[in-house]
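Per reviewer request, we include the raw input and output of the structure prediction for the construct analysed in the revised manuscript.
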Amino acid sequence: MKISRIVLVVMFVLMAMSRATQYGQAQTGDVKFEHLTIEDGLSSNFTMGILQDSRGFMWFGTRNGGLNKYDGTEFTTYTHDADNPNSLSNNFVWYLIEDSKGILWICT
């Protein structure tokens, strides 16, 4: 009885370790990386924060260039507009965070 318990415990530990190493490994597939610059439509080459949101859009917070959204083909730029109270409060975007509800928080 005692030996069968030890065997079960050892088997459980080995299975748990197998699972842990399986999930701890890096991705082995091909990774594509592009350099995006002002020639591609980015408003500034000085990027402070980068985020890929839950819908797949890439967001770039720039230094004095505002907020840039990249959909995979083109950029949309959001900047401060003194006449629009719903615009960014500043064009210097430090951080970008998406919360669990999918709301994008922008630190300027």
